[in-house]
């Protein structure tokens, strides 16, 4: 039996420069899609995938994230006295989640952020979720990866085909399809990984999307490697190092992924999530139609 994945790490120390000035005094992870902060979508995905312990890697200026997952006595008291039961339940559900925090004191890259969670993760497999990547899926994307992990007991990365002209924004894999585990055409064994290659150097059009199931040896790899793309310690480079001593799998998940760290991607996610809402969808659709674009 492979050890159960109990913990999910959320790197959240980035400066959010793509969203300035909104992110000058507010963490980008707290930007809302309709009425829920980005990071909460990721946290709910982890919980719906069966993970109970959330580890958030924060940095300076990120206290709003901690406050969000904390109890708010004043707010709860107010909602209680006004008999707003639904809102009270919504607010309480957020603070019921078990969250731990660790600070990344310098922005030295995604791999460095993951390494900061080492003490809290300990010697067990864990998930990593990048909350910029919002994935709308029938079976939560992380659950899809965990199913592969539970079969193979090896690290698994979320993969997606992206157009060649956009490939340089991603970690890219060279991978061969594996026909097992019901995954059939979706499962790959990774042969190599490159962080943000030039289009002509990209080994394929299969990009890594922000969902990973990792095993604790990756911490050793992250400690060993030198800074890579952008002068940062890259998670992709750590995985490439780990690949020397163990197999790593990739899974082309089912679902729609939004790059909510990008303005256009954020707008698309906002519109589509609003259209799906029972309380807003109909009115919003009518409004969009009235724009006669
Ligand atoms: C990070 C990773 C990259 C991955 C991407 C997915 O890049 O370094 O390998 O493809 O997330 O969103 P970032 O978007 O933080 O530059």
Spans with pLDDT under 50 lasting ≥5 residues?
none
Q: Given the helix and strand composition, which structural class is it?
A: alpha/beta
Taken together, the total number of domains comes to 2
Q: Tell me, what is the CATH class of the largest domain?
A: Alpha Beta
Cα-based radius of gyration, to the nearest Å = 19 Å
Strands of the largest sheet, in order across it? Answer: 5-4-1-6-11-8-12-10-9
- Label the CATH architecture of the largest domain: Alpha-Beta Complex
**What is the fold named in CATH at topology level of the largest domain?**
Spore Coat Polysaccharide Biosynthesis Protein SpsA, Chain A
Order of helices and strands: EEEHEHHHEHHEEHEEEEHHEEHH
Number of strands: 13
Mean pLDDT across all amino acids: 94
Q: Residue share in helices?
A: 25-40%
CATH superfamily membership of the largest domain: Spore Coat Polysaccharide Biosynthesis Protein SpsA, Chain A
Ligand catalogue: 1-O-phosphono-alpha-D-glucopyranose
Count up the helices.
11
Distance between the termini: 55 Å
Strand content: 15-25%
Overall 3D geometry? globular
Describe the structure.
- The chain is an alpha/beta fold and 293 residues long.
- The protein folds into two domains: 7-261, Spore Coat Polysaccharide Biosynthesis Protein SpsA, Chain A; 262-293, no CATH class.
- It has helices at 38-48, 63-68, 73-81, 85-95, 110-116, 118-121, 141-152, 217-224, 235-242, 263-276, 281-290; strands at 7-11, 32-33, 36-37, 53-58, 98-103, 126-129, 133-136, 156-161, 171-177, 187-195, 206-214, 249-252, 256-259.
- It is globular.
- The mean pLDDT is 94.
- The chain binds 1-O-phosphono-alpha-D-glucopyranose.
- The site of 1-O-phosphono-alpha-D-glucopyranose (G1P) has 13 residues, from β11 and α9.
- Residues 110, 130, 133, 170-171, 195, 207-210, 234-236 line the site of 1-O-phosphono-alpha-D-glucopyranose.
């Amino acid at each position: 039996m492979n050890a159960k994945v109990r913990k999910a790490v959320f790197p959240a120390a980035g400066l959010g420069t793509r969203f300035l000035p909104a992110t000058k005094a507010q963490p980008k992870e707290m930007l809302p899609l309709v009425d829920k902060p980005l990071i909460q979508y990721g946290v709910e995905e982890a919980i719906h995938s069966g993970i109970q312990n959330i580890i958030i890697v924060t940095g300076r200026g990120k206290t709003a994230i901690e406050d969000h997952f904390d109890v708010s006595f004043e707010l709860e008291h107010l909602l209680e006295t006004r008999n707003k039961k639904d809102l009270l339940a919504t607010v309480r559900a957020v603070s019921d989640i078990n969250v731990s925090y660790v600070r990344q004191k310098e922005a030295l890259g995604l791999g460095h952020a993951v390494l900061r969670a080492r003490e809290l993760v300990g010697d067990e497999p864990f998930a990593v979720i990048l909350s910029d990547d919002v994935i709308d899926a029938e079976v939560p994307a992380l659950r899809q990866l965990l199913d592969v992990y539970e079969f193979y007991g090896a690290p698994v990365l979320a993969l997606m085909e992206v157009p060649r002209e956009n490939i340089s924004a991603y970690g890219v894999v060279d991978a061969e399809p594996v026909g097992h585990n019901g995954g059939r055409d979706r499962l790959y064994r990774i042969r190599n990984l490159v962080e943000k290659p030039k289009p002509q150097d990209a080994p394929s059009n299969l990009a890594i999307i922000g969902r990973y199931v990792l095993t604790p040896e990756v911490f050793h790899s992250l400690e060993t490697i030198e800074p890579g793309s952008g002068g940062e310690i890259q998670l992709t480079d750590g995985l490439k190092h780990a690949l020397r001593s163990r197999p790593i799998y990739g899974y082309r998940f089912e679902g729609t992924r939004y790059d909510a760290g990008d303005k256009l991607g954020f707008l698309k996610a906002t519109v589509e999530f609003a259209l799906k809402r029972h309380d807003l969808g109909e009115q919003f659709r009518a409004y969009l139609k009235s724009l006669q674009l």
